[in-house]
């Protein structure tokens, strides 16, 4: 795992967009694992700009999102399908038939989770998995104590996640208490992981996930197991990282990062 610390949230977002953009240019049929949340909104705005102004071509790209609320249809303004359409898919030249999220209205949640796993496998697996991290260290909706070998499944949300996300609903009481999520094992199957973390509010949990012990209480710590993972963060999120000097040294000296310095 490598950690890249950029001066600002904007520059962290720009680097993340460049990494994704270069991967798509190199392999236009790339399979991207995508995330939602406030951190990702500026990233998707930058990718949309790159498509519009730099002709970044998503026409052959396929995507799989980490999660979706159970009980919300795709046209519900609070669904992640709606979020992805609004923030990214409507703004780039992607074929929406190649964009995948779990069906929040599925009658059989066990069958739907299995179907989603099969879809990922049929696509050849995920090339790049984009991640954020929750304030309690969760990735996707893999809440504390999720198995580190878990697969896509229905998952009950924690009260903390409910309190954090429900204000985004016009009526907070309407927020579902369960969601589909890729499992930690599913996430770790991706060929590359890019975790984007910004803001002082994530400094404590980022240090625990990156430099602390591997634990199911902080599912984001599972990226320590991945052979090709990079964390891109801003100065504010990096304040509690002990290995800062080494991370900066690697970024300044490893040949693979020369185009991005």
Instruction: Label the CATH architecture.
Output: 3-Layer(aba) Sandwich
Rounded to an integer, what's the Rg over CA atoms? Answer: 17 Å
Mean of pLDDT: 97
Strand content: 15-25%
In CATH's first tier, which class applies? Answer: Alpha Beta
Number of strands: 10
Our measurement of the CA-to-CA distance between the termini, rounded to an integer number of angstroms, reads 18 Å
Q: What is the percent of helical residues?
A: 25-40%
Looking at this protein, list some descriptive labels:
261 residues; Rossmann fold; seven-stranded parallel β-sheet; three-stranded antiparallel β-sheet; 34% helix; alpha/beta
Task: Describe what is shown at a glance.
With 261 residues, this protein is of the alpha/beta class.
Question: How would you characterize the overall build of this protein?
Answer:
- The protein is of the alpha/beta class.
- It has one domain: Rossmann fold.
- It is built from 8 helices and 10 strands.
- The strands form 2 sheets. A 7-stranded parallel sheet has the order 1-10-9-6-2-3-5. A 3-stranded antiparallel sheet has the order 4-8-7, with helices on one face.
- α7 (203-211) links the parallel β9 (192-197) and β10.
- The model has no long low-confidence stretch (mean pLDDT 97).
């Amino acid at each position: 795992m490598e950690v890249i610390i950029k001066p600002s949230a904007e520059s962290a977002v720009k680097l993340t967009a460049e990494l994704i953009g270069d991967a798509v240019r190199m392999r236009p049929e790339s399979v991207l694992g995508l995330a939602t949340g406030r951190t990702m909104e500026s990233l998707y705005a930058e990718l949309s700009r790159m498509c519009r102004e730099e002709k970044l071509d998503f026409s052959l790209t396929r995507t799989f999102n980490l999660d979706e609320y159970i009980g919300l249809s795709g046209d519900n303004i609070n669904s992640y399908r709606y979020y992805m359409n609004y923030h990214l898919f409507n703004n780039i030249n992607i074929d929406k038939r190649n964009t995948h999220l779990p069906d929040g209205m599925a009658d059989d949640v066990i069958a739907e989770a299995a179907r989603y796993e099969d879809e990922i496998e049929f696509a050849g697996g995920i090339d790049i998995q984009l991640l954020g991290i929750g304030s309690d260290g969760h990735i996707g909706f893999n809440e504390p104590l999720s198995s580190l070998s878990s697969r896509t499944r229905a998952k009950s949300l924690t009260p903390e996640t409910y309190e954090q996300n429900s204000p985004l609903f016009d009526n907070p009481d309407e927020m579902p208490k369960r969601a589909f999520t890729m499992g930690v094992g599913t996430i770790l199957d991706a060929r590359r992981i890019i975790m984007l973390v910004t803001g002082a509010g994530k400094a404590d949990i980022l240090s625990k996930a990156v430099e602390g012990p591997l634990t199911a209480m902080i599912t984001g710590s599972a990226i320590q197991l991945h052979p090709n993972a990079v964390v891109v963060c801003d100065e504010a999120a990096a304040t509690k990282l002990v290995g800062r000097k080494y991370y900066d040294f690697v970024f300044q000296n490893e040949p693979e990062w020369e185009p991005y310095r």
